[in-house]
Amino acid sequence: MMARAAAIALVWLLYAAAPAHAYPHWQFSSGTNRCSSCHYAPSGGGLLSDYGRYQAGDELSSFGGDGALLHGVGPTLPGWLDLGGDLRGALIVNDVQDPDGAHAAVFPMQAELAARLALPGSLSIAGTVGLRGQVRRADELVPDQNFQPVDASQLISREHFVTWQPESPGPYVKLGRFYAPFGLRLPEHVFYVRRDLGFNFMEESYNLSVGWHSDRTELDVTAFMPDELRHMGGTEWGGAVSYQRHIVDDRGAVGGQAKLASGVGVTRAIGGAIAKLYLPAARALVVAEADLVWNRFDGAGATLQLVSIAGVSLFPLRGTVLSLYGEHEQTDLRVSNARWEAGSVELSWFPVAHVELQALGRLQLPAGGDLARTLLVQLHYYL
Amino acid sequence: MRARARHIGLLAAAIAAVAVGCGDGADPRPASWSYLSAAILQPSCATASCHSPGAAVAGLDFSDAERGYLSLTRLWVWVVDPTGELTENCRVIEGVRVCQRTVRPLVNPYNPAQSRLIHMLRAEGSPRMPPDRPLPEADILLIERWILDGAREHPDDAEDP
Question: Which domains does chain A have, with CATH numbers?
C-alpha cells in the first residue's frame, strides 16, 4: 500500500505544472506575433501584461470575461505593481503496466503567487512563491549516508529575476532564476525536448540572459549555473543561445538553438532547430523542434543523441485549442533500440477569462518495453 | 517565393528528423557504472521531485555516480530493533525503537534476476520505475550486463560491492 501511494504521488509530482500562462499556441494564431506582447518576460511565460490580460478575456476565451486581476474587482493596483497567481487541481490516471494495474489520484497541483515591481531606470523585479510537492514526509527516517536537505524548504520560488528592458521589443538583460530561452518553449515539461535538454520541472537555472528582440527576430544569449545552495533543479553549468526569425509574412518562425553544458559526469553540446507555421485556412499552427546532443561521459566515451517533437494545434472554436504531438528520442544513434516514441493529445478549453480546463492524454513506448498510458485532467484558475 | 520555399523546406526537414531513427541494433555502449549513472540513471531517475538530493524519495539519490552507487549497493535503512539488544545507531521514534542497519541491496552482483533494481525497471512483482516513463529494454539489458559483470563502481575494482 505504501509503495502504491508513493508511486501515485511520484507520478503526479512528475506531471506537476510548468510555469503557467506559457502558451506558445497563441503566437501567430491569435494575431500576436511576439511572446512579449502578452507577457512581461521578454521571452514569454509568467505574469501577463495588461494587454495579455485583455486578450485573455476579450479574444481567447469562449464566453469572454474580465481578464484583469481578480476579474477587475477591487482596488486598482499602482502602475509599478502587478500581481498574479495560479491554482491548479488535477486528476491523473497512469498505467505503466504495473502488476497492480493503473493508478489514479486527484490532487492539488499548483498554488503559487507571482509579483512584479517596476523600478526606475527600466528595471523590474519579478518572482513567484509557492509550495513544492514532496513524496516523503519531512519527519520520515532516511539513511544517514545520503545528502538530503529535505527540510531546507518546501516553500520555493521557482522564478525570481531582475530585468533591465528600456523598451519592448528591444534589448534586455535578465538576471536570476528562470528557464533560459531555448527551443519551442512548450509548457509541458514532460515533453522530451524539455525533460531531457535541461528544462524539466523545477530545473530553472540561475541565469544571466542578454537579448535583442525586434518585431521579426529574437536573439537570446544565456550563461547559466545550478542552484548550489539548495541543490534544487538542474546541475549543469554552461551557456545557451537561441535565435528565431519570423517568416511568411509573420505567420511563422524558424530558428536555431545551441547549448554547451557541463553536468555531473557528462558534458554535452546541443544544437537544434525549430519551426512554427500558422496556416490560416486550416486554422492550424504547425510546430517542430529537433535537437542533436553530443554527450561526452567522463571515462565512458561519447554518444550522439536525437530529441525531437512535431505537432499541430487546431483552434476549432473560440477558446479551445486541440493539439497533437509526436515525439522521438534516441539516446544513442548507434543503438536503434535505445529510444522512446510518444504521442500526446491535449485539449484546452478557456471558457471564461481566468479559467482553463485541460485534458492531456499521452502514450509512451520505450523500444522493446511496455507502453505507458497517462491521462491528466486539470482545472486551472489564475488570479 | 524562393524564400518561402526555403522556409517550408526547413520545416519539412525538421519534421522528417522527428520521424527518423537510425542505428544497427548493436549496443556498443559501455556497461560501466560511470556511463550508466550519467546516461541512464541521472536523466531518468534523478529528477527534482524524485531521486534528486532535495527529494531523495525512499532515501535514494541518483544525482551523481557516487551517491547513486551507494544508493544501490550500501544504503542503510531504519529497521525496528528485532531483539531489543542493539546498541548502535538506534533511536526511539513514536515509542518504537529503530536502528540503522544495512539491508539487502538493490543490486545483487552477478545475478540480475535476483536484483530488485531489475524487478522494478521491468515491473516484475514490483511497482514500475521510473513511474512516468519506462526505460527501453536496451537500457535495462545494459544495466543487466553491468550486474552480470559484478556491479562494480569502477571497472578496476577487485572486490564486489
Answer: 2-382 (2.40.160.10)
